[in-house]
Design a protein that fits this description.
mainly alpha; Arc Repressor Mutant, subunit A; Tetracycline Repressor, domain 2; 10 helices; globular; DNA-binding; HTH-type_TetR-like_transc_reg
Length: 217
């Protein structure tokens, strides 16, 4: 029993140390990127700032872009998770609209409320813009898989993919609008009011096609 307790404690300490190392690397990388621009900072410089080996950085972040966009898993999984956890009687469309408006009210960075300095850093780097595009593509595939599972669709049924394209397309448009308004100098409160209205219009436009799709029974 004692050895099991010690083993669990050691495992917990290792996990905590890994988490702290990852956060330290991410924080130092973000600081350098914001100061000098993403394309002007090397992995070696991030490693030196975080006081770790270069290999340690690449073990935690195989791609340099993910040092700046350290939200891939949460960003990709969020729409699919929202659909998986929708309430009885709620459609996929209604769940995503509800979740998005709640995120707007919280000025959630995952939907684009990153602040002007961070937003400018991303938009000034073709590599980060391309990586962000991949994020959107990945979340579309994740949502399509969830919709197929939730509706019991056959493998060759194209409808889950069609629905995912439309739903993620709206979320992508709203993300872009949030970033655009951020770069134009609007504060978060103004941006939230604008994109919340955009969201109501955009999701309502999908209502005729998807209003009764993937309703939880």
């Amino acid at each position: 029993m004692y050895s099991e307790v010690v083993s669990r404690a050691q495992t917990g300490l290792r996990a905590m140390k890994k988490r702290q190392t990852r956060e330290s690397i991410s924080n130092e990388a973000t600081r350098l990127f914001l100061e000098r621009g993403f394309d002007n900072v090397t992995i070696a410089e991030v490693a030196a700032a975080a006081q770790v080996a270069k290999m340690t950085v690449t073990n935690y972040f195989p791609r340099k872009e993910d040092l700046a966009l350290d939200m891939h898993d949460e960003f990709v999984r969020q729409p699919a998770k929202t659909v998986e956890e929708r309430a009885p009687g709620e459609s996929a469309l209604a769940a995503l609209r509800r979740s998005y408006l709640a995120a707007v009210a919280e000025h959630d960075p995952v939907i684009g409320f990153s602040g002007p300095v961070f937003a400018r850093m991303i938009m000034d780097s073709p590599a980060l813009v391309a990586r962000l595009r991949e994020f959107h593509d990945d979340r579309e595939k994740a949502l399509a898989g969830t919709l197929a599972s939730e509706t019991g669709a056959e493998p060759d049924d194209i409808l889950p993919r069609v629905a995912a394209i439309q739903l993620i397309g709206v979320l992508r448009l709203l993300f872009d609008e949030t970033v655009r308004h951020t770069l134009e100098g609007h504060d978060n409160a103004d941006i939230a009011r604008t994109v919340a209205e955009h969201a109501r219009v955009a999701f309502s436009a999908l209502e005729p096609a998807l209003g009764d799709y993937a309703i939880r029974r």
